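Many introductory courses stop at the sequence. We go one step further.
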Amino acid sequence: MPSAQDPFYVVKEEIQESIDKLQSSFHHWERIPANTGEQIHLSKELLASCGSIDWQVDELDKTIAVAARDPALYGIDETELEKRRRWTSNARTQVSTVKKVLTRGKESNGTGTTSGNAMRRELMKLPNLYGTDGTDPYAANDNDDFIASESDRQLLLIKQQDEELDELSASVQRIGGVGLTIHEELLQQEKIIDELGMEMDSTSNRLDFVQKKVAMVMKKAGAKGQIMMILFLVVLFIILFVLVFFT
């Protein structure tokens, strides 16, 4: 059986285990003398187990009904659906038979043997879920059908994964193109920044040179020369001010 099991078969196995435990407990119940405290307590436990199994079978029937709406979507066919319906019907009948005998046992004042005989009579009417050797007669066919449906499902999943990988590959290529464009833009901006830095260095060197020249002129001119230069600059400023604002 593949590791990715059909949920139906997983739940089916769990329910079958519960039914096996129910039957085992019932065989113990039918050997207990009637109307004893132990039998009454075990009867309550068995009835509770019957209710729990009935609920699980009902839920399993609901999943079968959902799958029947679109069998192709779940990788099954009508034959498989009919097998599943037959199994749940037989399981429900088996649990119902146990419940019926337990109810009769509670109402009866006889012995445990009478209840056991009633159980055996009821079970004679029940279509057994197992063969004479204790194996499930549908197991081989169910396994073959499940393997076939699972194979189809795996192929469908692989196809979907291939499509998703193609979409992912296209997305990666688009992201790679965007990344390459960003890289080129960064290189251009880095080049512009380098050129700006070089121009700033050149301007700074020129400014330093002019400042040194001015300092040398001011030093050679002395105090009198500095005063004359200041007066000249003031006169020049006044002339420029008049030319700009009064003409």
